[in-house]
Amino acid sequence: MGLNLKEKLQNVNKKNIAIVVSILFILVMCVIAGFEYYQYNNMKTKAAEAQEDMLRNISTLNEQGEPKKPSEYNIGIDYNKAMKGKKPVMVLFYADWCHYCVRFMPIFQELSEKYKDTLEFSKVNVEDKKYEKVVNEVGITGFPTVFLMDPKYDNKVLLSNAFLGKTELVSKEIDRFLRIRKMLDSKK
Questions:
Q1: Beta partners for 94?
Q2: pTM: predicted TM-score of the whole model, two decimal places
Q3: Domain total of the chain
Q4: Domain shared by 139 and 49, yes or no
Q5: 45-69: per-residue pLDDT in tens?
Q6: Same structural domain for residues 75 and 46?
Q7: Which domain, by its residues, includes 110?
Q8: Residue (of 13, 36, 33) closest to 25 by Cα position
Q9: pLDDT by residue (tens digit) across 170-179?
Q10: Cα torsion at 16, 21, 26, 28 (round to 10°)?
Q11: Strand order in the sheet with 155-159
């Protein structure tokens, strides 16, 4: 009954050892292959994002090869005209010297193309004297500041700057805003 370890090992069939070793080898190879596949997909995703960023950056350079200032983009309509309209408005309060504003402009442009049928877009240069009253009323304290405003319902929603780095995050907030507006419209 009491076989010691040496006797047990002698009784083990060499064929069974070969099978166990083969299974362990296959498992290790599968783990390595899975890790390599993960690395490859991760690298491919990063390369695609880098290419997208590069293309976005090329289209955002002015004639001197410098990044375009927000005022150099031809996006949207005048703030006062937008606030008299019937559509909700995405308003960007910016300063030309603000690097974050410069970085946000390609996203703002992309959104203006995506939502052109449902939203108006407006840019407000906070240093322009004609907007001094608006800037003070809205309470702008940092740049960029983006609001979704609905003149029809006297509603305004401040978008967190944490969302402004990705088009998808801003789109999600716009879609939420538009769903609520649609619900309000259906109640009338």
A1: 125
A2: 0.68
A3: 2
A4: no
A5: 877 776 666 555 545 677 777 888 9
A6: no
A7: 70-187
A8: 33
A9: 999 999 999 9
A10: 150
A11: 120-125, 89-94, 145-150, 155-159
